[in-house]
Design brief:
Radius of gyration: 26 Å
Helix content: over 70%
Structural class: mainly alpha
Distance between the termini: 62 Å
Low-confidence stretches: none
Number of helices: 24
């Protein structure tokens, strides 16, 4: 057998970043590089986490075409693991050795590659279990999935759950599972039945000094109007970790959700001092200024506030431009920015950015419903083209009916339809829109009734086709 092929067969059986299906197109490499470098500055005393970060950083640097730097990062990861674990370091090094074997192979250093494969074989003989069932491997895999792309959050959840089945008291896996649940589970249950809240509380028990977990719990508690309990947690977290960028940014998000925009902005500006290249912080600042702009527009006389609204809009645009320059495929920020260009009467720049954003969302299969929603808003409010707005609200709703944007699209469509019916203009299409909304909700009888009304006003093949399909589905 071809020796290179034999080597590759062995390499593909390893558990490491090279074998975890981390697809380059799913990852914004420069943004991830910034976040990993920032992570290293945050908790330099936590050597275990630092060792994992160096291993992940090495894979990113390899993807960016810097194999020598990647090798140096991996050697640092090895040293840190050995410092953490003393004589018990072997299991913790399974992923790092796997990365080193792969990197040596890509650098055509086959002797070194074989050497790392031999080390892994020796570890496997000492711990006779599949590497995929070792808690340290599952944990590192989970943290990698959480860090690399939102598309991998469900995989992260699975990894941490498996690690917890093996080591239920381990704080690291409890924290990871809580964060994965927080990012994937959307509250539809009661407070008592919420798996996210249960796990966040469990994670805090096993990580009493982790103030980020406390703020995440407070963010969930305000969904259930437990504001006093949530604010108490937030104040304690801020008191204990006043300069921790992650604590500051999540607390800022918490205050924005409660409507305390100025306090949120102050915290985010402080966080930005230590993390100037954080696309997340710039985006959060933009969302604060967006809310501030809306609040101002709802107050007082139009003339008195016009220049102030423009100042705030300019701040919003500035931070969105920073966020999108730091993270080249930040779809929601790009959509928001394009909409603001339209609001600023720069129609050609808005249209151009929307087309770039549509292309990026389609290529990455990421948040296309969000782009459709913002583009519909642009057509409705800036371009005054109701027909195109209707088309894109419908696209958003078809793609993601339960998302925030999906629900907003449904509300916008309902308002457009009701307005037309009240004015007795384009009533046929208005009833067609209502038929579509009922169909999306699964309300077939109401949808049939609306499509029948629509067809009484005008002949329309699409309405007729939808009506026929609905009638057939009831037989």
């Amino acid at each position: 057998m071809d020796p290179d092929r034999t080597l590759r067969t062995k390499l593909h059986q390893l558990e490491c970043h090279f074998t975890w299906a981390l697809i380059k197109d799913d990852i914004d490499l420069n943004d991830l590089l910034n976040r990993l470098e920032e992570q290293m500055k945050l908790d330099p005393v936590k050597k275990e986490g630092l060792a994992r970060t160096y291993s992940a950083l090495a894979y990113v640097r390899f993807l960016l075409g810097f194999p020598e730097e990647a090798h140096n990062n991996l050697m640092t990861s090895v040293e840190l693991h050995m410092e953490c674990h003393g004589d018990e370091f072997h299991r913790a090094l399974i992923v790092t050795y796997g990365n080193l074997a792969w990197l040596s192979y890509h650098m055509r250093n086959y002797t070194e590659c074989e050497s790392y494969l031999k080390k892994l074989q020796e570890i496997n003989e000492t711990f006779p279990t599949e590497f995929s069932s070792v808690p340290e491997v599952l944990g590192e895999k989970g943290w990698t999935f959480l860090k690399f792309s939102h598309k991998y959050y469900d995989r992260a959840k699975l990894c941490f759950k498996k690690a917890l089945d093996l080591e239920p008291e381990e704080g690291e896996w409890n924290a990871g599972y809580a964060i994965a649940l927080y990012r994937t589970e959307y509250e539809s249950l009661s407070l008592e039945d919420s798996p996210t809240i249960k796990q966040l509380k469990r994670a805090i028990e096993t990580n009493p000094d982790d103030d980020v977990l406390k703020v995440l719990l407070s963010m969930r508690l305000i969904i259930y109007k437990r504001n006093r309990e949530a604010e108490s947690l937030v104040e304690k977290a801020l008191e204990r970790s006043p300069d921790h960028p992650h604590v500051m940014r999540y607390v800022a998000k918490f205050f924005r959700k409660l409507g305390s925009v100025d306090r949120s902005i102050a915290l985010l500006k402080r966080a930005l001092e230590s993390s100037p290249n954080s696309s997340f912080i710039h985006h959060q600042l933009a969302l604060c200024y967006k809310l501030k702009k809306i609040q101002l527009q709802q107050e007082g006389s139009h003339h008195a506030k016009g220049s102030r609204v423009q100042q705030i809009r300019d701040q919003c645009i500035y931070h969105l431009e920073k966020a999108t320059s730091l993270s080249a495929s930040f779809i929601s920020a790009m959509s928001d920015l394009a909409l603001l260009y339209g609001e600023n009467h720069d129609m050609s720049q808005a249209e151009e950015l929307f087309q770039v954003t549509f292309k990026a969302a389609e290529e990455k299969n990421d948040n296309l419903h969000v782009v459709n929603f913002y583009y519909a808003d642009f057509q409705l409010y800036s371009h005054r083209c109701e027909q195109l707005a209707i088309k894109h609200y419908m696209e958003c709703l078809k793609m993601s009916p339960d998302s925030v944007e999906g629900r907003r699209s449904a509300n916008r469509l309902k308002k457009i339809a009701d307005k037309r019916i009240n004015r007795n203009s384009l009533a046929g299409e208005a009833y067609g829109i209502l038929g579509f909304l009922h169909k999306i909700k699964g309300e077939k009888l109401q949808a049939i009734e609306c499509y029948e009304k629509a067809l009484s006003y005008e002949d329309n093949n699409e309405f007729l086709s939808n009506l026929s399909a609905l009638r057939l589905s009831l037989q």
